């Protein structure tokens, strides 16, 4: 983090020719369990990770917002009164979309001063660890502070989601931003995506001698394209056919009726969501009653459901999960929106090296690109750093 701080400080000065007035950061997230349940108003159990996006910001005298990033050669600028989703394109739609979305939540954009913002991130892009939410939440936290808006963290999560839905055009749910804003060290965020009630629950991985291993397949995904939206549409069609406002209202006991009513594919989509909601509840209960070593079968079942019923896995993710499990992982599953990105494996600390070697060997044997492996810890949510 110290290195990232000095890099952002220097980057800000070289892009804008003056010093940043403050630094804010927000983490990426890993989802322990509860996939594609958030937009169905169900349950999720992610945690914020110790990989962060850091931004430097300095207010401006005029009403212009300028954003620059270590990944982009040129800054993008726009007047605050010109902010609309249609005016935003490419990477800058994430930070600028947040400014627009704050306006939708009451920020008087026409009366506010602009700002210069510089962004750097250590959250891998496209790995399913929500580099996008990390940008959105860092910017939301910063503008909320400098504009004196006083919005609470749950509202800021909705701001980030609105930016992603309307400015970026990805029809995603509320999970990633909630994890990035509400996360705490060594704990998961158990979120009811209907009420937005969140409970921070200790994970106990460290005390149990466990590590969470990320296997980034480097198969890249984007949620602004087809697969994610079509899964969401299938869920909404399934809910409508079953006469409920969201799949959250169905329970495993409703599945026989769903099977009779729905076509075969929609039924499998619905079965994933309904059983996944139940697995989140079971994971939280098991964690509390028996500790983290007992949740492996739930992680495994979640992966099977995404592979077979929701069909959002890919051969690389399946191989990562199988190889990790075969080498002694307690449980493993793909994480995030799917169609690429990363798998997670819950592993005894002493097996991190042999499991990593087994995964790398399996990928080499299959002729797949070499995955990136690293462990993550649950970390604190968005914060002002300086
Ligand atoms: C992506 C989305 F952004 C989340 O809202 C969630 O739907 C997830 O995919 C799947 O669980 O990360």
Automatic annotation (TrEMBL):
Keyword Transcription regulation: no
Binding, Mg(2+): 132, 164
Pathway: Carbohydrate metabolism; galactose metabolism
EC number: 2.7.1.6
Localisation: Cytoplasm
Enzyme class, UniProt record, top EC level: transferase
Amino acids binding substrate: 35-38, 228
Site (Transition state stabilizer): 29
Residues at the active site: 176
Binding site for ATP: 69, 126-132
Galactokinase N-terminal domain boundaries: 12-58
Keyword Transmembrane helix: no
GHMP kinase C-terminal domain mapped to chain residues: 287-359
Task performed by this protein: Catalyzes the transfer of the gamma-phosphate of ATP to D-galactose to form alpha-D-galactose-1-phosphate (Gal-1-P).
PANTHER family in UniProt: GALACTOKINASE-RELATED (PTHR10457:SF7), MEVALONATE KINASE/GALACTOKINASE (PTHR10457)
HAMAP family associated with the record: Galactokinase
Name by which UniProt lists this protein: Galactokinase
Species per Swiss-Prot/TrEMBL record: Microterricola pindariensis
